[in-house]
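Example record used in the benchmark description.
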Amino acid sequence: MRVAVLGSGAGGAASVAELVLAGHDVHFWGRSPKTLQPHIDLGGVAYDGKLGEGVAKPALITTDLEAAIAGVDIAIVVLPTFSHSDIASALAGAGWPSGKPVLLNPGHTGGALEFAETFSRTGKVAPPVVEFSTLTYVARKYRPDGVTISGRAKELKAAALKGGNEVLEIAAHLYPGVKPVADVLASDLSNVNMILHPPGAVLGAAWVEATGGNFTFYVDAMTPGVARVMKQLDAERLAVARAFGHHLPNLIEEMKLLGTVEADVTDTDDFRAAIAGGKANRNIKGPDSLEYRYYKEDFGHGLLPFLEFARIAGVETPVAHSLYSLAQIAVGTDYRNGGRTAAAMGIAGMTRDRLIEKVRAR
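Model output (structure tokens):
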């Protein structure tokens, strides 16, 4: 299959490696010439870790979006979730056809809704949009021309706006382990990062600023108090999911499916031990500042859309609201400015039943 991987960070580089290794014809696009130049010099993406070790050589490496999407069967967006609106506008402007699917890896919370709404606001019909609940990989770029992949999701929830089973089959062909779910609300509310990151980000903010991230986020910062807050936040997530008709696994069960909690963990109520014991995440350092993506991404594009869904569902979410409000004060920002609001997702003023109808329309 001919695919365009849009995004040159760790996730994009890991996707290029996996898809090239699987025999697909890959176009690798990034916005930054500085970021792409080391890959151009190498002729590809150096990789090590879960996928083995080597250099994956895509057919094209470019900053030209029109060239990147020319002749491909699907566009795979591997960008921070706060970039989904921008890339939707860019793809519409570059002539992306309404019949070809776009895959958001990941969509996180509300990604497909926001992408489709932004695309539609350009006056064009939005394409089918597939979203994954979280990124396929635990990956970091420790060198400018390569990526280290310490984890690869074993089972990943995916849903589509438009296109139904056909586009989900394409996603599963490209990324083995994809598990289709009923609608994008189920995949949105399976986003582990909006539960995993905000408690430690808020309660550990002083540590972040004092040390510049010189601690392990999933081990050192996974204290009993943080774990208790996380468990309550997860209970709110599950309650909102139930209000939309979805019975989802708790955070630890979900992370076992992904592979970021070890398969032999039996006590899925002990959040601290399960998360701190995960091999894929154990060496990941904490945020180096309050500008880190845990603050930029998991509040304005994680907890904010979650709170919007909860409001529509009529479910009280005091822990999520408190963490969101404290983060705004600590960071000194209003996440609604540029964040994933109900209006940005095209669901403002909707009832619960109307939202369910929207996401299940084929």
